């Protein structure tokens, strides 16, 4: 069925967004991306070479922009000024590319988002012409504020970055989904395929992950599993699950026409 993910006016057939860090090398990165079917890939500008280091291997060679949509991100930034500066550099390196992922972290231990700084950076970047997808807490009020600033997608965490703990607060996610007029993409905390499926069954528009694939024992195999999970979860959401019932007997087979009746 035709069910594209629409972000900033562009359609994508895959609802799985995948990071490019933490793999053993660029060859494994590309193999995992291909297995995932992802079209949008995140790139940590401060950690991955996309041309800023001329004498080092570049991700652009292994993961060409002709095949993938790059989503430069501000991983490792702890202030609005750092984040804005990093994304302006990315735009220069990528010939004016304006679709970006903003994240401003609060501390080194939890990597929880610093929301006051995130809101500040979002305002600057939107005014500067960027199409901002933004990592945020699962606070529906602040998610709405980011949407009103002009962000093209909100990306609440499911649990802490790299934790693999899955979706710890589905109720807040549903509040965000229920009010949002832009895509809601779960970002951070997914550990395995069932986590991705649950996010999609809740009604999220997509799932972004890195560690869950890159740090699996077999990253390429896990990437394929995540692809299937996201697709299955989306189809289940669209199909509409049966209502939950508590001790309400309802035979799944017809009871008329049985012998003796």
Quick gist of this model?
By secondary structure, the chain is of the alpha/beta class. It is 37% helix and 16% strand.
Please give a structural write-up:
The protein has 261 residues and is of the alpha/beta class. It is 37% helix and 16% strand. The chain has nine helices and ten strands. It has a five-stranded parallel β-sheet with strand order 5-4-3-10-9. Helix 3 (80-93) runs parallel beside helix 4 (115-127), helix 4 runs parallel beside helix 5 (140-149) and helix 7 packs parallel to helix 9. It starts with a strand and ends in a 22-residue tail after the last helix.
Low-confidence spans: none
**Radius of gyration, taken over Cα atoms and rounded to an integer in Å:** 20 Å
The total count of strands amounts to 10
Shape field = globular
Distance between the termini: 43 Å
User: Per DSSP, what share of the residues sits in E-state strands of 2 or more residues?
Assistant: 15-25%
Overall mean confidence score, pLDDT: 91
Number of helices: 9
Instruction: Give the helix level as a range of percent.
Output: 25-40%
Strand order of the largest sheet: 5-4-3-10-9
Helix/strand order, N-terminal first: EEEHEHEHEHEHEHEHEHH
Q: Specify the structural class.
A: alpha/beta
> Biggest β-sheet: count, sense, barrel?
5 strands, parallel
Defining traits:
9 helices, three-stranded parallel β-sheet, alpha/beta, single chain, 261 residues, five-stranded parallel β-sheet
Question: What does the secondary structure layout of this molecule look like, with pairings?
Answer:
Elements: E1 5-7, E2 10-12, E3 16-19, H1 26-36, E4 40-44, H2 59-62, E5 69-73, H3 80-93, E6 99-102, H4 115-127, E7 131-136, H5 140-149, E8 153-156, H6 170-179, E9 185-187, H7 193-201, E10 206-209, H8 211-214, H9 219-239
Helix pairs in contact: 1-9, 3-4, 4-5, 5-6, 7-9
